[in-house]
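From the pipeline queue, job 12 of 40. The input is one protein chain; the requested action is below.

Action: predict structure.
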Amino acid sequence: MSGERVLSTFSMILLQVAGLGILLFWTIGAILLLTGNGGQINDLNLHGFWRTVYFSYPFLLIFLSAIGWLAFFRKADLVGLASLSVAPGVLFLMYLVFIMSPKPF
């Protein structure tokens, strides 16, 4: 196994752990959103398109992770595909926290 392949393996594993970490916090938010017992996530009033985007993260994670692993096993080394499952989650959570959150003033 070459050095590049080892680095790609570690990158894929790290990206999967990061995606699952985001999925953990997504699950907590989804439970609070569905039960109505949440704090700030219920104050966001996610409706329509934004609610659909929020609830599509697990499907996005599974789909892009599968594509990334298939490319990895075909030795295409497209680790960037696996990072696509992490980047939208981080960007969307940052958007929710910094843009859509109710302002204290």
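Job complete. The two ends are 57 Å apart (CA to CA).
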